[in-house]
Amino acid sequence: MHDAQEQNTQGRGAQGQGAQGQGAQGQGINAQNSMENSMENSMENSKQPHHAGSAAPAAKVMDQETLDFIRGVFEVVRAGDAEHLQSLLDKGMPANFRNQKGDSLIMLAAYHGHLETARALLKAGADPEVQNDMGQTPLAGAAYKGNMPMVSLLLEHGAHVEGISPDGKTAAMFAAMFNRTEILALLLERGARIDARDSRGMSPIDLARKMGATDTLALLESRGAA
């Protein structure tokens, strides 16, 4: 997941100097759009799987029938068809297929909010900690989307509460940025550091202030963050 892009926000600032409230709102919108684009681009590539697990890309040696099967599996997960997926897992299908951008099946299920699909994958051994090639994790994706049941499920199956993206952001930081109060509270209860800092030196409370996330800001302040 990438940092919020500032170009659109600067443009809005030029149009409305002195309107700090609108500027903060603009930052939030731009950050959310940037996040959405990043995640959507990553998820879009799930239509073209190239490898499974941690193995090297094997597209060149796969026959068309195998490739079509794997593509079909990704579509099953994308659609949230837990019953169909379970039948495939029961037949021995690996739970850790990944596509050309490193997105795993559990990553798709988490991002698209398919709880039962995610549960089936995790029970079958899907790794909730596998990052895609952009450094995104299922937990961070669920926190960004505001899916509390999914966050809880991933934590129950071993997702690391302090897992970080390449820019140093944790799931708690994404929850703080996008005003996901219940998720932030859960992550803090599970050990997320309130004083963690990303690669720019920004803490969860700094990010909440920057994004105008008033609810998570109040929560963090009540927990002693400054």
Outline the structure in words.
The chain is mainly alpha-helical. Helices cover 56% and strands 2% of the residues. It contains twelve helices and two strands; from the N terminus they run ααβααβαααααααα. It has helices at 7-15, 20-44, 64-79, 82-90, 105-112, 115-123, 138-145, 148-156, 171-177, 181-189, 204-211, 214-222; strands at 51-52, 97-98. A two-stranded antiparallel sheet has the order 1-2. The chain is elongated. Mean pLDDT is 81; it is low at 1-29 and 42-59.
Describe the structure concisely for a colleague.
This protein has a two-stranded antiparallel sheet with strand order 1-2. The protein has helices spanning 7-15, 20-44, 64-79, 82-90, 105-112, 115-123, 138-145, 148-156, 171-177, 181-189, 204-211, 214-222, and strands at residues 51-52, 97-98. It is elongated and about 55 Å long.
Salient structural properties:
single chain; 226 residues; mainly alpha; two-stranded antiparallel sheet; 12 helices
Overall outline = elongated
Task: Give the rounded overall mean pLDDT.
Answer: 81
Q: Strands of the biggest beta sheet: in what spatial order?
A: 1-2
Element string (H = helix, E = strand):
HHEHHEHHHHHHHH
What structural class should be given to the helix and strand makeup?
mainly alpha
